[in-house]
């Protein structure tokens, strides 16, 4: 994925080992020379040390400035794209998930965006949420490569829980899918789906990361959960405007949990309630509050009241690949005492 930059810093900054490692790892040939598994493990370990060393009173920390955070998540995206076949190994894919989960953690993203000008935060939120979506897709494709119908893989980390499934439509619709104590989804039996497909369900346990609070415009009151569907060749399946709605259950929520059903609109870069509604009397089965929505993406309970206008027509769409996010599209990103400008283009 293309990325190039010039960084001008006009403030005292603290640079750590993680930033230096990321700058080295993005160089051409680094992963080949060191090996994917070793590089990914080191990526996870270097990130964890940097995250654990975050000091709340250290306002400028180049390990987690917006530029380095963008380069780092872009690097993880490229690595999981180029080495999907190695993600079949559960230990390897778990390391990728641990690294992603840490990057999406609120503590890290709050530190990253503390210096970003308010007017440019929506663009930064889009970089993070789009890149995270690409990485989840890459991991799902790697984990389920060569899987047989009925295969179920669960990968649990501190920040994110994943459930991956490959099965026939009759086994993947009309019943709740997920994991005890985590997100669960139920697809309607008559959904326009192929006879056999893949499912990826994720639960962001500790909320959603700083991108999802809309920088103060929203209050996320539940874990952020998501479900994606894929054909066996890895192409995404999109369900839109379903007449028979999809049921979504939020773990660790009750009728006392405030909030309206909302989904992350990656184009508007905000939460929307269109096409979703909250069940005022969810089943007493202990699976948490229920939302019913006419499409799939990421969902949460948020405290803002959002108008709901469900659409009537079910549509099934597929594509070979989504357009890839290009880092370096934000020019002149204002960063407190620093300014970040992106020029030119180069490959990792």
Describe the structure.
With 348 residues, the protein is an alpha+beta fold. Helices cover 28% and strands 24% of the residues. The strands form 3 sheets. Strands 2, 3, 6, 7, 8, 10, 11, 14 and 15 form a 9-stranded antiparallel sheet that branches. A 5-stranded antiparallel sheet has the order 4-5-9-13-12, with no helix packed on it. Strand 4 and strand 5 form a beta hairpin. The termini are close together. The N terminus and C terminus are likely disordered.
Give the helices and strands, then pairings.
Layout lengths: L5 E4 L7 H9 L4 H5 L1 H17 L13 H17 L7 H14 L2 H8 L7 H24 L6 E6 L3 E9 H4 L3 E3 L5 E3 L9 E9 L19 E7 L5 E5 L5 E5 L9 E6 L4 E3 L3 E3 L10 E5 L4 E5 L12 E5 L13 E3 L2 E4 L7
Helix pairs in contact: 1-3, 1-4, 3-5, 4-5, 4-7, 5-7
Mean pLDDT: 82
Task: Give the distance, in angstroms, between the N- and C-terminal Cα atoms.
Answer: 7 Å
Shape: globular
Class based on secondary structure composition and strand pairing: alpha+beta
**Largest sheet entry:** 9 strands, antiparallel
Work out the number of β strands.
17
> Regions with pLDDT < 50 over 5+ consecutive residues?
1-14, 307-348
Radius of gyration: 20 Å
Number of helices: 8
In short:
With 348 residues, this protein is an alpha+beta fold.
Key features?
348 residues, alpha+beta, five-stranded antiparallel beta sheet, 8 helices, globular, disordered N terminus, disordered C terminus
């Amino acid at each position: 994925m293309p990325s190039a930059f010039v960084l001008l810093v006009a403030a005292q900054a603290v640079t750590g080992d993680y930033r230096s490692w990321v700058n080295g790892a993005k160089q051409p040939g680094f992963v080949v020379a060191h090996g994917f598994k070793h590089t990914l493990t080191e990526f996870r370990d270097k990130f964890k040390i940097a995250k654990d060393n975050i000091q709340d009173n250290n306002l400028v920390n180049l390990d987690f400035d917006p530029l380095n955070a963008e380069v780092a998540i872009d690097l993880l995206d490229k690595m999981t794209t180029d080495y999907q076949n190695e993600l079949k190994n559960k230990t390897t894919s778990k390391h990728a998930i641990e690294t992603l989960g840490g990057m999406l953690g609120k503590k890290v993203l709050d530190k990253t965006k503390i210096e970003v000008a308010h007017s440019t935060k929506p663009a930064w939120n889009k970089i993070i949420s789009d890149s995270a979506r690409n990485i989840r897709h890459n991991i799902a494709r790697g984990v389920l490569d060569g899987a047989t119908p009925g295969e179920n893989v669960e990968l649990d980390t501190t920040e994110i829980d994943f459930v991956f499934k490959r099965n026939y439509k009759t086994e993947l619709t009309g019943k709740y899918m997920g994991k005890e104590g985590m997100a669960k989804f139920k697809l309607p039996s008559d959904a326009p789906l192929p006879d056999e497909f893949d499912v990826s369900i994720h639960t962001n346990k500790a909320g959603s990361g700083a991108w999802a609070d809309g920088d103060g415009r929203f209050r996320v009151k539940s874990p952020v959960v998501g479900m994606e569907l894929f054909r066996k060749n890895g192409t995404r399946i999109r369900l839109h405007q379903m007449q028979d709605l999809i049921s979504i259950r939020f773990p660790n929520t009750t009728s006392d949990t405030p909030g309206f059903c909302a989904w992350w609109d990656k184009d508007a870069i905000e939460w929307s309630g269109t096409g979703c509604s909250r069940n005022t009397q969810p089943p007493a089965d202990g699976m948490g509050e229920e939302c019913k929505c006419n499409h799939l993406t990421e969902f949460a309970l948020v405290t803002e009241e959002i108008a709901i206008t469900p659409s009537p027509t079910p549509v099934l769409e597929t594509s070979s690949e989504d357009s890839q996010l290009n880092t370096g599209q934000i020019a002149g990103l204002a960063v407190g005492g620093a300014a970040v400008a992106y020029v030119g283009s180069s490959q990792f």
